[in-house]
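Give me structure tokens for this 134-residue protein.
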Amino acid sequence: MKNKREMDKHYGEIIEKVMRRNGYSISEAARLINVNRRSIYNWFEQPRLKEDTIFKIGCALRYDFSKEFPELFKSEDFQKAFERNSWGEKVNMAEEDEKISYWKDKYISLLEQYNAMLTSQGQNNNLSTFRYAR
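Here you go.
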């Protein structure tokens, strides 16, 4: 049976305090959790939240909620998730770096082609101006 203190906890308010104390804006948190801002505000208003929702928030913000919710989580739950997530993030960052490099190279190539075309047209315009000037 839960004690009175556990019954009085307002999960949404606890989540909000943690987010704000750790410097997350609502927009940033929504992006990290992959929900819209309205969902975040709705969670703040809820006296109870599902365990998996709190876990998802903790993982996205890399925050261990076992201190605030010892009745729901052990610290190891979040630590395991953080370890899995950090490796995944490194893989994703490598993929993102590849995508960025691809588009940067593509952009530079197009700029070079465009510059060559302008140079070519400029030379053609100079020749035609020279012909008409005679």
